Model the fold of this input.
Amino acid sequence: MSDAPRQEPVGPPTGSLSEPEPSAGDHDTRFFGQPWALAHLFGVEMWERFSFYGMQGILLIYMYFSVADGGLGIDRGVATGIVGAYGGSVYLATILGAWLADRVLGSERVLFSSAIVIMAGHIALAVLPNVTGLGVGLVLVALGSGGLKANATAVVGTLYAEKDPRRDAGFSLFYLGINLGAFLGPIITGILQSNVGFHWGFGAAAVGMAIGLVQYSFGRKQLPDAARTVADPLPRSRAGVYIGIGVAGIALIAVLVLTGVIRADNLATVVILVTLAAAIAYFAIIIGSRAITATERSRVIGFLPLFIVNVGFWSLYQQQFTVLTVYSDERLNREIFGWEMPISWVNSINPIFVIILSGVFAAIWARLGDRAPSAPVKFSLGAMIMGLAFLAFLPFTGTGQNGTPLLAIVGILLIFTIAELFISPPGLSVTTKLAPARFHTQMVALYFLSVALGTAIAGWCAQFYDPANEVPYFSVLGVIAIVLGLALLAAVKPVMALMKGVR
Done:
């Protein structure tokens, strides 16, 4: 996560301690009407998502496929929990990335270093054998992705002045880069996995991240100085304390693993509890800080209902990588003119729709300007539409092995995409606008904690999915999401009052 300087914060919420100085990005329109520096962030995030989603597209089947089929032969319920825990850990790691950016290195340096760690993780998955490669690779990718993801998002926020009307459109364009990578990754890794093996697919993910790293290294110096500023430098006298805390934390995790407290079959539950505790602590620290104004405190409180609805949304949305993968393997007819489509290609359907529709949504929000729906309304609509997507599975229950037509999943994933575009790009944008000046990067981390919690819950929920009895699963989760959306819609006025002018 990136951080703007605290003396002259870039794009702080109205009411922060000082107004931002105009930057070159304010008048730069060379990248599709956006600042040219956005192109560098667009590129590195695109290739990072190529590697991330390319690997994730084959990760679950790698774990539960038999050894004879090139997999690890892990129980499917355990494997889905691991995928959910890993996905949650990626977003949980944004806390560490935010802290390093705010206190030690600055956002841009954390972003660059994290890209190197990600590449190392994919290499480990590609070359190290069996469970060893899985463990080492997932830990490195989770840590690196956590550091890169939130810092890239926050750096995008530094490219715009507070009231720049291009801000939401810029985030939507950035989101397009994410989904270009997300589309291409599973296509390439799926082809390689189907034809030459899983490890070749993981190797392609490593190559993709290497390309992104090289591309970004040429453009990183053109980013604004705000992206490199250490907002709240850690005093040298306290460095030893934090190093000790870090070593103690690693030792504690090792002990819990060795004593069997943390196991593969309860990993998703552990990540849920840790993430929930971290989110509560983060809200308490920020709201209780004496370094923020009353207006900033109110805005953080106003973020709470958005946080809760976001958790519900991602709990369903991230099941693309758990339940939908199993569904694609067992329930979906993937045959096209006698050729069977790789399972991972289903994960490329959603990014296609995002690529098509993100520009449409960006244009709509830009054209509507101040008349566009507020963030709470967008969140409520996104949650309800996501609930409808789950209910859309119901007509195809009971159709038997590979009985669901491919076009049905295409239609359902179109609904997924519409829901996503109501929540995700506006969510990134409103978080940076609600953030107190002293906690700019860490508020972005808090946003990603909601994604972490939802992702881990998605993995935990997947253990209850039974391809032979789908009606209770899809109907209960779909109704819960709709109820969450309706509750937020009913509370729009008080939430807007707490947000103090931020829409």
